[in-house]
Amino acid sequence: MKILLTGGAGYIGSHTVVALVDAGFEPVVLDNFANSHPVVLDRLTSITGQPVPLERGDVLDTPWLEDVLRRQQPAGVVHFAGDKAVGESVAQPLKYFHNNIGGAISLLRAMEAVHAEAPETAPTLVFSSSATVYGDPASMPITEDFPRGHTNPYGHSKLVIEDMLYALNAARPAWRVGVLRYFNPVGAHPSGLIGEDPAGIPNNLMPYVAQVAVGQRDHLNVFGNDYATPDGTGVRDYIHVQDLAAGHVAAIKALLGRDESFTVNLGTGRGHSVLEVVRAFERASGRAIPYRIAPRRPGDVAQCWADPGLALRLLGWRATHSLDEMCADTWRWQSGNPNGYRS
Ligand code: NAD
Ligand code: UD1
């Protein structure tokens, strides 16, 4: 059974390719390599032992997408493609509204057009949403019925796409749509062959810590130690990308098997502070991670973690990897590929 992965060459997409192959699916990667590298396909071949088909192009190109859907006839589509840097979205909002919202509209229109030609199969879509749609939540843990909000154009684009999907699904109940709200994906495949390869200075904690450990940056700035958390630093629900990838397989199986749409959190249900992450990475790497306390980062919340109970009930999925495993796998990837895919 073929599954088309837009943005399949990216960080989460590439790990999901491996999980889909392991589960007996045939993933097809669609990517324009705006934020990834074609060499990832060679790495995926090494891991899976089989070539992974590639459709190289842009999700904004609706006629081309229709052609891809007609040729490949996937049983389902996972829509990862999009831009994801919060700071950049504040500086360049139109880029985010165009690529993220425009990309989703383009894909949905292509799916709708191709579905009209073969109405017997229900369109099946999994969408990469984010815990960012909860804005600044009033309490923890976060359940899916919490009020949604946004604090930046990236988060706004995710919220608008969710709303588009809900409206479409209301008008077309035959569509099967799985909205997955990821918490903080970290880690890498245990082979060390694929991982997160951020362009420029990493915005997120784990890749930054990994670059300090490998000697590319001299220290970590800890953004605030005066939050109302046990050690004063920000607390997040870090989830191993391997668990996240397994969550996509579970979502696809549930959509194909049950004809039901859903929105679920993919998190571990546990929060870790910045300093806990630093200590875990020091254990995993055997390196010291020098850090300095810096001012709070504007827009940051003190704490954020999921109630992952609905994903367990609906999908039979739960995260199993510990923070130590997340750090060990990140370290294996970072130390083996200090310059990412350009190594
Ligand atoms: P990524 O940047 O590594 O992967 C995205 C992929 O999409 C890249 O390979 C990029 O080249 C491709 N792409 C972008 N625009 C495209 C276009 N117009 N046409 C074709 N391909 C295009 O990001 P990721 O971390 O793997 O994230 C995947 C999805 O998950 C994104 O939608 C992101 O917003 C969402 N998400 C990520 C995180 C996270 O922390 N990584 C958290 C929550 C949600
Ligand atoms: C960020 C995004 C969020 C996105 C999520 C995906 C922002 C404001 N938010 O959230 O929209 O959904 O990634 O994973 O960018 N930290 C440091 N020093 C650093 C980097 C981070 O102390 O150099 C701290 C942060 O203050 C935070 C924690 O580490 O407490 C995690 O930060 P990060 O990895 O950027 O994730 P989020 O802030 O949760």
Concise structural overview:
The chain contains 11 helices and 14 strands.
What do these coordinates show?
- The protein is α/β, with parallel strands linked by helices and 343 residues long.
- The chain has one domain: 3-Layer(aba) Sandwich (Rossmann fold), CATH 3.40.50.720.
- Helix content is 42%, strand content 17%.
- It has a seven-stranded parallel beta sheet with strand order 3-2-1-4-5-6-11, with helices on both faces. It has a three-stranded mixed beta sheet with strand order 12-9-14. A two-stranded parallel ribbon has the order 7-10.
- The radius of gyration is 19 Å and the shape is globular.
- Nicotinamide-adenine-dinucleotide binds next to helix 1, helix 5 and strand 5.
Helix content: 40-55%
Question: Would you report the number of β strands?
Answer: 14
Which of globular, elongated, flat, extended, rod-shaped describes the shape? globular
Tell me the CATH superfamily.
NAD(P)-binding Rossmann-like Domain
User: In terms of structural class, how would the helical and strand content be classed?
Assistant: alpha/beta
Question: What share of residues are in beta strands?
Answer: 15-25%
Number of helices: 11
**Strand order in the sheet with the most strands:** 3-2-1-4-5-6-11
Report the sheet with the most strands, covering strand number, pairing sense and barrel closure: 7 strands, parallel
CATH architecture classification name: 3-Layer(aba) Sandwich
Radius of gyration, in Å, reads 19 Å
- Mean pLDDT over the residues: 97
